[in-house]
Amino acid sequence: MIEYLDAHPHVIVMIVTLLIWTGIAVYLWRLDKRLVTLENSTTTTQNQGSSSNPNDISSSAP
Amino acid sequence: MKYLFYVSALGVAIAVGFGKGILQRSALRAILAWGAVAVGIVFGLFPPIVGTFSDAATEAKFNRGAAFTVLIPVGGVRQIDSTDLECRDIAGHAVICRGSNEMIKTVMAQSNHHNLLLHTRLITHSLYDITALESAPRIMLPHIPALGEKARIIFFHVPAAWTGFFAYIVTMLYSILYLRRKKEEYDIIALSSASIGTLFTALAYASGAVWAKFNWGHFFNWDSRELSVLLLLAIYAAYFVLRSNVKGDMRKRVAATYAVVAAVAAVFLIFIVPRITISLHPGSRDDVNIGPILSPEQDALDLTKAMVFSIMLAGITLFFTWMLNVVARYNRYRYHQLGSET
Q: What class does CATH assign to B49-138?
């Protein structure tokens, strides 16, 4: 295995690049899910009548 | 044919990316983005780059003594004596290949059943030293003169540059929509697109600088395209400065107007300036070819290269739409809930 990687350095580059892009994709996916939670909690708060105006910052709870 | 691949890939990416509405979540968009980029990385970086003996001879002028991989078809070798072979490459060009007695026996044993890759080193114009041997895989990438292994960066540098430009065009379109309809969401999408566009332009700039270091000798070469893209980054940096310094209702209108004018400058700086000036980049005024991606020359029409490039183009465009979706939704949340001015 080590001999193969030594003779084919572009395979190491491929593995590292794949890991970096997979990391970015996982990060983006988790961010997306957290944002959904945030959006849902906001919708629930608004439905409970905490604020009728979404631009009213004085009454909105972040 | 290859232009059809590029246009179809972009068409699919734009349809999937924007089809459901850019502020709507889409699992398909995310899966296709990661899938296409992963496939592009594997097929862009794993297959060997192979050429012909003519390529090897040309390459040896730039990089004397370096090994070069040549594709030999089934039955493309004939034994001359215990240490010499007549090797015929895929283009039919024959030279003498010299190796150890053991190596010659191995090549002969395999050549009647498999296409072979011979790693060779040029000794004289018609005499090559065999340094290694392996069976040819099904997928191989073509050799691009003077680029060699460095050609693989094309699959990242060009799609990143394209995505940066595409993001600025998206910024312009949503800015026009904002100016016409005055909907907050259009302004938020325009701002998010400009920020991601700047990220991708910076990535294209960084990858280009590394490539330039190894191909042209320096990270920055005062090349007209390098300068025009630097100017483009400065123009979009000014967009963010403008947004943060104009207060009240004027902010969005001024920013949207600026984004429309900046997009005109982007077209001029990316497509016109590098073509009317002398540049190290392909496609400049003094250049006879327009580069391995766009060139209609026969040797630039390799199907594998065109397909891998198209997949990567679609993948990175989809990644941009996914990032735009997340960033724009976050900016919308911030605007509506936290009251932060975008």
A: mainly beta
Q: Where are the domains of chain B?
A: 2-47+148-338, 49-138
- pLDDT above 70 as % of chain B: 94
Q: Locate the chain B residue with the closest alpha carbon to A56.
A: B339
Domain count, chain A: 1
What is the extent of the structural domain holding A13?
Answer: 2-34
A42 located within any domain: no
pLDDT at B308 over 60: yes
CB contact under 8 A, B45 and A13: yes
Q: In this predicted model, what pLDDT tens digit does every residue of B72-91 receive, in sequence order?
A: 999 999 999 999 999 999 88
C-alpha distance from B144 to closest chain A C-alpha (Å): 16
Q: Which residues contact B174 (CB under 8 A, 6 or more apart)?
A: B186, B187, B189, B190, B193
DSSP per-residue string spanning B234-298: HHHHHHHHHHHHS-TTHHHHHHHHHHHHHHHHHHIIIIIHHHHS--SSTTSTT-SS--TTT--SG
> In chain A, positions 5-44, which contact chain B (CB-CB < 8 Å)?
7, 10-11, 13-14, 17-18, 21-22, 24-25, 28-29, 31-32, 35-36, 38-39, 42
Q: Which residues of B touch A42 (CB under 8 A)?
A: 333, 336-337
Task: Tell me if A16 is assigned to some domain.
Answer: yes
Is CATH 1.20.120 the classification given to domain B2-47+148-338?
Answer: yes
Quickly state the pLDDT bin for B300 (edges 50, 70, 90): low
